[in-house]
Write a structure and sequence with these properties.
The chain is an all-alpha fold and about 110 residues long. The chain has helices at about 10-20, 30-35, 40-45, 50-80, 85-105, 105-114. The chain has a domain at about 30-105. Helices cover about 70% and strands about 0% of the residues.
Length: about 110
């Protein structure tokens, strides 16, 4: 399986080394609670805060989806030629499928169903 992750091997290594599954659910130590966590401190240490990593992940996902939709749009435009009605009908169908898939995969959809 090919990953869409565009991080370098070093970035992936650092990200994986920061996530220790053994620490999940444990309270923070006093040393961790008392240490400063300013953005400058993270950057000085050569790290990014988790929220910054998440923003980068979201931005990459958004750009990937934009590229995918642009490609689908252009391909459909080519297939339909000058038939604007056929294009509109087929594009709406593609959009409905995309939205339904997004709703099924959304964590919010699972919560609202229960």
């Amino acid at each position: 399986m090919v990953s869409d992750d565009r991080r370098t091997a070093a970035e992936r290594f650092v990200a994986e080394s920061l996530e220790d599954p053994r620490s999940a659910g444990r309270p923070f130590s006093s040393r961790v609670r008392e240490s400063r966590r300013s953005l400058e401190d993270y950057l000085r240490a050569g790290l990014r805060p988790r929220w910054m990593e998440r923003l980068i992940e979201i931005e990459r996902g958004t750009k990937r989806e934009q590229r995918r939709l642009t490609k689908a749009y252009e391909q459909l435009r080519e297939e339909c030629g000058d038939d604007r009605r056929a294009f509109a009908r087929r594009w709406r169908a593609i959009d409905r499928q995309r939205r339904a898939k997004a709703a099924r995969s959304s964590p919010h959809a699972a919560r609202s169903a229960s």
